[in-house]
Amino acid sequence: MSDSAGIEYGTRSDTGRVRENNEDSSCIAPELNLFVLSDGMGGQASGEIASRLTTETVVAHCRDAEQNPALPLIGGRLEGISDATNRLVSAVRLANRVVHKAAKRDAAQAGMGATVVAVVVNGERVSLAHVGDSRAYRLRNGELERLTQDHSFIAEQVRHGLMTEQDAANSNLQNVLLRALGAEAEVEVEAGEEVLMEGDTILLCSDGLTHELSDAQIAGALGDADDPQEAADRLVDLANEAGGEDNITVIVVRSAPRLVGTISKIGKWFRGS
Amino acid sequence: MPKLVLKFQNSVLKEAAVGEREVSIGRSPDNGLVIDNPAVSHYHARVFNEEGRLMIEDFGSMNGTFVNGQRVKMVALKPGDSVEIGKHTILVADSRETGDPFFKGGVPRPAAPKINETVMLDTKERREFLQKVAAVGESAQPAPARVKVATLVVKNGKTNQKEYTLSDKLTVIGRSAMATVKLKAWFAPKVAAQINRREDNCYYIGAAEKVPTINGQPVIHPAKLSSGDIIEVAGIQLEFVYRD
Predict the structure, then answer these.
(1) Does the distance separating the beta carbons of B120 and A175 come in below 8 Å?
(2) Which of A71, A52, A171, A125 is nearest to B208 (CA)?
(3) What are the sequence ranges of the domains in chain A?
(4) B96 pLDDT more than 70
(5) pLDDT by residue (tens digit) across B6-54?
(6) Can you tell me the distance from the alpha carbon of B14 to that of B30, in angstroms, rounded to the nearest whole number?
(7) What DSSP designation does A150 have?
(8) Which residues of B touch A157 (CB under 8 A)?
(9) Residue of A nearest to B220 (CA)
(10) A167 — contact with chain B (CB < 8 Å)?
(11) Range 77-116 of A in CB contact (< 8 A) with B
């Protein structure tokens, strides 16, 4: 799949080999170069509801803003980031309110929550917003960089020097989050900005991927694949082979090298599309 | 292997495993388990293995070491014991059980808990924890003074300004339209390098089309910038400084 701006993407979501249902959701608005992934939590089916409400709300708010640029920002403007990034943060804050309200309204959904990681690409500028432990990575020239910090109990301990990376990897508190959508009426959203170079690959993923695979395995799968869909499939297959203990969802976004983009356009022209 | 779990009120601050080597406890940073609190002596106590028994010995500390409420000089410890030093508590746990003390008292868990289930700390616990880590974090590592303004000073090379104030989350160095530090040389790269301000309010430089150097060292993975660092990339030289 590709669009005119040279952005290609692939996505896959899988229940894994242990869980009975898939509480992850993803939603893509190709016309906005907007990619959203969420991992839900809560009893019965409420995790699925929380993650779907999250991804759908983020996309809907960004689409509304595209139609009406004067649409107010939810929760005010942050300094030092672009309008596009502020819009994405606004969308995530709205998703928090929607999930929080749904959890309060319906007893069966009490306590539900969700993580979110969302990316929008505008030319060379990449806007990021996230809450929780779903992650964004970037592969550039073979080097994998994590673009997000987990909002988890463990990550916070490591960040403050109270725990070593080694202890963190062995801890049984891996899944305790400090920030999630739905927990409170307002949430602190972490915003980031990046520059997208030709050939860069961005990966959004739920923790079902990162608990199973090392950075080296992720970098290898992203680097070896011919296109983003192949990369997405390969990552999910590898995570399942490694145990598949949790739901696994990935979105792979690639800025196609200009030469490849040009060749594919010529190809389309020959095929008359 | 037994583990010591250091807690302050309801929050777990850190853990230390007691294996062959003893774990010393105290306020000095060279202890195995550092408790940064004036009520704790610099070298307060130690926990060690003696013929398969876990022992604790107080080093004659000012405010004492208490096990399950009793002041002790040297006693054997067993899993479940609670060691009190100042206002801090050290729980003795089998390493497999270390998570449990934390789960008790408020972490929402489903009726049939699965070890992999993601959970949120409830509001009260989360606030308490964040206050604790903020307090500990500040005494452990002085944060960069936030009133200072990060600035790039051009030492050498063709750029559109002589100085740049880094107020944005992302600063691009290159020929691109989105670049803040605009390179004016003819064959300059569109995006030579990037500088990100992260949540910790520190600045990190990373490679793009070019691999920058900090003080002559190439930057493969994003590296934190300190005041006085000299950055070289795409034929320009910049000094990173925090200004008052």
Answers:
(1) no
(2) A125
(3) 7-272
(4) no
(5) 888 777 888 888 877 888 999 888 888 888 888 888 889 999 888 878 8
(6) 15
(7) -
(8) 14, 133
(9) A143
(10) yes
(11) 79-81, 85, 111, 113, 115
Of A13, A11, A15, give the one whose Cα is nearest residue A247. Answer: A15
Q: Which two tokens stand for residue A165?
A: 């990376």
Give me the residue label for tokens 């409830």.
B122
What distance in Å separates residue B167's CA from the closest CA in chain A? 6
| CB distance A5 to A14 below 8 Å | no
* A184 vs B contacts (CB less than 8 Å): 123
Give mean pLDDT in consecutive 10-residue pieces for chain A, a chain of 273 residues: 70 95 96 97 86 97 96 93 96 96 85 95 96 96 94 84 80 82 93 94 97 95 95 97 95 82 58 54
Chosen CATH of A7-272 out of 3.20.20.140, 3.60.40.10, 3.20.20.105, 3.30.1490.20: 3.60.40.10
A157:B133 CB<8 A: yes
d(CA B189, CA A153): 41
ipTM: 0.85
Report the predicted TM-score, pTM, of the whole model to 2 decimal places.
Answer: 0.73
